[in-house]
Amino acid sequence: QVQLVESGGGLVQPGGSLRLSCAASGLTSDYYNIGWFRQAPGKEREGIACFSLNDDDTYRADSVQGRFTISKDNAKNTVYLQMNGVKLEDTAVYYCAAERTMLAGCGLRREEYHYWGQGTQVTVSS
Questions:
Q1: Alpha-carbon span 94 to 10, nearest angstrom
Q2: pLDDT at 103
Q3: Which of 2, 6, 59, 52 is nearest to 25 (CA)?
Q4: Which residues in the chain belong to E strands, given as ranges?
Q5: Mind listing the pLDDT tens digit for each residue in 47-81?
Q6: Are 80 and 102 in contact (CB under 8 A)?
Q7: What angle do CA 21, 124, 64 make, to 5 degrees?
């Protein structure tokens, strides 16, 4: 059973940095994509970054390009989302998700992912 646990959320000032962690267990191979999504109050859940564990391909949405970085630590079975230069509009609950796939690369379509963590709150405020 795949389990995902997010951590690292909190309160951060505009322009500051935060690193979110997604600890994964139950992955039976490297043929998984890990995605980071976020949902602000009253808005749809938005995919912002993903990592293909199979070929190390990554992808980021335009909204976070140049500010957020996704990376992995194989030894810890953890995928990170490094958030730099945060903005007020980055305030949301952040979720990581996983999907088993044999395809190369990764995507940010919510329906592609079947395993979800519980989420971690990120609040950007001065």
A1: 11
A2: 87
A3: 2
A4: 3-7, 10-12, 18-25, 32-39, 46-52, 58-60, 68-73, 78-83, 92-100, 115-116, 120-124
A5: 999 999 989 999 999 999 999 999 999 888 999 99
A6: no
A7: 60
